[in-house]
Write a structure and sequence with these properties.
7-stranded mixed beta sheet, 8 helices, alpha/beta, 7 strands, single chain
Length: 273
């Protein structure tokens, strides 16, 4: 459950790992003052767990290509596996820590299993319910960004912000007592879209991405289903990279941004039939 205590803990951790860095102009690498923030939530809790290496390689290749074109991008990465949420430091894309280390999701799952064995009573009602982790991850990352922006120096606040969710989670049903429900999350997403101009993008592996995105307030045109295979994962990030470049320059998400993702998905389905 989200609480004031939890918020204070997260903010304290953020201060210690550099997320709320107070060095004037630290994030404004090129001095333009026109930064674009990319908040990634990558969740591997189902079929995509077998594609961890492909996802990490695809993400890192995307970051490498983006940094060749632009230095005015900030990367804030949230990783989730088996309902364990890990937050990376918010950094300029030029920093090495904008990349993901191989095996990080496996490490998260190992931590969860160790905690499960030590505290089995906390998992009694969770084994057959998936999705609350996704809700917490999306809601928590948005809320955290709001807090950081409020405390940041004016020159360290981005001109544009995009939240990118990549998941194989088919359900967004909250567990009893969860703070983040679909209705509450939808309200928060729409508030950030309307009042702050944020953009949200939702990519789901072999799920009805448009329906799930719509349930939490993300426009269906910003949602895409992708094939849960190595090529599909890599095309996912290749298309994301091209879309991010245009968004960072214009503030617009092109209506054809997911065309290649959809084409590979159709080809994948044809091969299975």
């Amino acid at each position: 459950m989200w609480s004031r205590d939890m918020e204070e803990i997260i903010m304290a951790e953020a201060k210690t790992n550099g997320t709320t860095d107070t060095r004037r102009g630290y994030f404004d690498v090129d001095g333009s003052g026109a930064m674009t923030e990319l908040i990634f939530l990558l969740e591997l809790s189902g079929p995509m767990a077998d594609l961890e290496s492909d996802l990490i390689d695809g993400f890192n290749d995307m970051i490498a290509r983006l940094r060749e074109e632009r230095t005015d991008l900030l990367v804030w990465l949230w990783k989730e596996a088996s309902k364990c949420l890990d937050m990376n430091t918010r950094v300029p894309i030029t920093e090495d820590s904008a990349l993901i280390e191989q095996g990080c999701f496996t490490h998260l799952r190992t931590l969860v299993e160790e905690y499960r064995r030590a505290h089995p009573e906390e998992f009694i009602h969770q084994d057959n319910v998936r999705g609350s982790g996704c809700l917490f991850g999306v809601g928590g990352s948005i809320h955290m960004a709001q807090q950081v922006y409020q405390k940041a120096l004016p020159e360290d606040r981005p001109m544009r912000t995009m939240v990118i969710i990549v998941t194989d989670n088919t359900k967004i049903e909250p567990e009893s007592g969860d703070y983040w429900t679909p209705d509450r999350l939808r309200e928060l997403v729409q508030q950030q879209e309307e009042e702050a101009g944020w953009k949200f993008v939702f990519l789901g592996a072999n799920i009805d991405a448009e329906r799930v995105a719509g349930d939490i307030g993300i426009p269906v045109e910003n949602a895409a289903q992708f094939a849960c295979d190595a090529v599909g994962v890599r095309e996912n990030f290749a298309s994301l990279g091209a879309m991010i470049l245009e968004f960072s320059a214009t503030g617009v998400v092109a209506p054809t941004w997911s065309q290649k993702i959809s084409e590979h998905l159709a080809q994948s389905k044809d091969r299975r039939n």
